[in-house]
């Protein structure tokens, strides 16, 4: 839990933030003309009350994040300029105060930077590394994140003084001493004077307003008042032109606009878009101007983010599928909305999550777009994979969709023990979940009990060898656990989700006499297969699962969920969930989770942000994601996998 205070010109906001979520928030009058310590002591009491309601002491918090107006030295935790607000705060020692009065570590930053951090970690700028924030309010605050870092500059003013760029030479006098600054031309404090000095003011309906803010200005302009329309146009022009300069200076991907004026967001954003298209050097190509997500609370969220060393990096990860051709492949996968590459040999597999030396999943969206899973793991092995994971070790699972139009080979995979006797082999226990199938599609798994080793070997080259195998008719949602060393084949007409150890070792004993388009047969590996084959694998090496294994829990209204544990082997735990409503999950910072949405889209909520997992899509929840929720309006089935507890502990 982190306590936060966002000191404003008129209102101070404060709150308790946990994992990017607001646990409690409040606000009080800022009293910015008075001494800073009196105000902080007052807010301290409110925070203590808040903590008490959470059964906490304020000193139990991880720290206190403070945002202040003016420039801030965030190394020494000092306010450098005040501009008429809490004038004594330049001399105030925030660090000692927080230590003595609250027994807390304090971190302090400028308020616009704080708001940008809030939007970057948890809001509208979440998905970019080059972002700018502009708060259009009483004053105009700006802040910049460039290549993933807050721009600070040599005197802590980098990117912070965008309210004081010159937009109108010979224009109005600013509080900073210059003339024609953006703040002097189009800010809340300057507005009353601008309006009153306007040539149409005497006939304006704005004369009836006691308070003259942007809200009133926009309202009167909407009602057709000529003075309000003219001043609004002036402000939009000044802001828009300033944006063009910011884009030229900082080259952001996203500009987030916050502040009171965003009550009229649609028309403001449209106007900015137009100005940027007209005036920016490259016509605003790839620059998005968006409204702040946390209109009221970006500051307290950002103040908490001062305690995060990195941007919230543990959001769900979505990857580009890696498609693999296979002689037995088909087009069933198109039924789940996939467009597979066109080639001579059909697509047989989509590798959904893979970290192998010859194949990598690549992040498809968000902050890490374009990074490979390997790069993410090398940067942060425990954060992505889980406790004890070493950066040189591969991601332990490989997740695939298998699109079998024809039968796959009859085959076996080695276990750890047999790998010791085989060169270049990796152990592979796997499990399958049937997503879809054609009529009478079959799964062959395990050699029948009364078949002798000799009999099996003698028939290997004959397609009738299938009669020596246990066979199961596929059903949607049926699942098969295939322990390494078990003879098996996926029959034609199956679309399967596969969770397996990260391995690519398959020993084929028969490919059913099949030839490719050049008349070639695929390589068989009978000797290796015989080295690892377990003739009499017990049936729990296969296990088709029954729906009766479900646990069921009704929730409020007609929400419900149902969970079916599909596999709990030493390598992975896989469960099928059926959900309507909201369900909480937690990685406990120990081990990643993976998700696959079977029949509908799902919403994943993490750190105050929403992510959509489309039907037929997989994602990886990093180990350090902590709490997350899955929400579904329709009754939706999804597959949830993780490592087994033994594997995390070992
Ligand atoms: O050797 P083929 O027939 O291409 O089958 C190979 C495939 O077998 C399946 O049972 C799974 O183990 C897949 O992960 C594997 O890629």
Automatic annotation (TrEMBL):
Out of the domains of life, which is the source? Answer: Bacteria
In terms of Pfam families, this protein maps to: MPI_cupin_dom, PMI_typeI_cat, ROK
**Residues in domain Mannose-6-phosphate isomerase cupin?**
566-635
The Phosphomannose isomerase type I catalytic domain is annotated at: 319-429
Q: Which family is this sequence assigned to? A: Belongs to the ROK (NagC/XylR) family.
Name this protein carries in UniProt: Phosphohexomutase
Q: Which organism is it from?
A: Lentisphaera profundi
């Amino acid at each position: 839990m982190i306590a936060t205070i966002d000191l404003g010109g008129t209102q101070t906001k404060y709150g308790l933030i946990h994992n990017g979520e607001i646990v409690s928030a409040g606000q009080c009058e800022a009293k910015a003309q008075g001494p800073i310590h009196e105000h902080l002591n007052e807010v301290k009491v409110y925070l203590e009350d808040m903590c008490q309601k959470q059964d906490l002491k304020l000193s139990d918090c991880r720290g206190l994040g403070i945002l202040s107006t003016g420039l801030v030295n965030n190394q020494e935790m000092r306010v450098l300029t005040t501009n008429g607000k809490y004038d004594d705060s330049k001399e105030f020692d925030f660090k000692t105060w927080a230590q003595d009065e609250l027994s807390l570590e304090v971190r302090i930053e400028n308020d616009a930077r704080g708001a940008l951090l809030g939007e970057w970690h948890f809001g509208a700028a979440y998905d970019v590394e080059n972002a700018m924030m502009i708060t259009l309010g009483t004053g105009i605050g700006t802040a910049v994140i460039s290549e993933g870092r807050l721009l600070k500059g040599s005197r802590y003013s980098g990117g912070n003084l965008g309210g004081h760029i010159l937009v109108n030479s010979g224009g109005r006098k600013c509080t900073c001493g210059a003339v024609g600054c953006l703040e002097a031309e189009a800010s809340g404090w300057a507005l009353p004077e601008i309006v009153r000095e306007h040539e149409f003011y005497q006939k304006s309906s704005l004369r009836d307003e006691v308070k003259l803010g942007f809200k009133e200005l926009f309202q009167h302009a909407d009602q057709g008042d000529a003075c309000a329309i003219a001043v609004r146009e002036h402000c939009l022009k000044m802001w828009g032109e300033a944006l063009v300069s910011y884009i030229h200076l900082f080259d952001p991907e996203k500009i987030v606009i916050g502040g009171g004026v965003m009550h009229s967001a649609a028309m403001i954003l449209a106007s900015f878009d137009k100005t940027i298209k007209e005036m920016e050097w490259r016509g605003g190509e790839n620059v998005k101007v968006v409204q702040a997500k946390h209109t009221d609370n970006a500051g307290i969220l950002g103040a908490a983010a001062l305690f995060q060393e990195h941007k919230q990096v543990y959001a769900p990860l979505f990857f580009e599928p890696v498609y693999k051709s296979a002689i037995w492949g088909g087009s069933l996968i198109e039924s789940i909305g996939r467009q597979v590459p066109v080639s001579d040999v059909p697509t047989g597999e989509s590798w959904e999550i893979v970290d192998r030396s010859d194949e990598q999943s690549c992040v498809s969206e968000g902050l890490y777009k374009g990074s490979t899973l390997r790069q993410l793991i090398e940067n942060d092995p425990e954060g992505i994979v889980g406790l004890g994971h070493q950066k040189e070790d591969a991601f332990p699972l490989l997740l695939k969709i298998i699109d079998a139009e024809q039968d796959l080979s009859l085959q076996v995979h080695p276990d750890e023990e047999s790998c010791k006797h085989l060169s270049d082999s990796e152990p592979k226990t796997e499990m399958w979940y049937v997503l879809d199938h054609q009529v009478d599609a079959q799964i062959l798994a395990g050699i029948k009990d009364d078949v002798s080793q000799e009999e099996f070997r003698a028939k290997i080259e004959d397609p009738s060898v299938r009669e020596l195998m246990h066979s199961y008719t596929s059903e949607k949602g049926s699942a098969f656990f295939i322990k390494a060393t078990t003879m098996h084949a996926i029959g034609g007409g199956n679309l399967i989700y596969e969770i397996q150890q990260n391995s690519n070792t398959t020993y084929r004993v028969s490919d059913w006499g099949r030839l490719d388009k050049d008349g070639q047969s695929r390589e068989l590996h009978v000797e290796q297969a015989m080295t690892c084959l377990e003739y009499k694998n017990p049936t729990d090496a296969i296990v088709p699962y029954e729906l009766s294994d479900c646990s069921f829990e009704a929730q409020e209204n007609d929400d419900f969920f149902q969970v079916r544990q599909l596999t709990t082997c030493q390598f992975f735990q896989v469960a099928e969930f059926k959900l309507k409503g909201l369900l909480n999950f937690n990685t406990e910072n120990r081990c990643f989770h993976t998700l696959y949405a079977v029949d509908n889209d799902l919403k994943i909520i993490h750190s105050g942000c929403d992510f959509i997992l489309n039907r037929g899509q997989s994602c990886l929840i990093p180990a350090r994601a902590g709490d997350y929720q899955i929400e579904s309006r329709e009754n939706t089935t999804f597959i949830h996998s993780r490592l087994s507890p033994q594997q995390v502990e070992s």
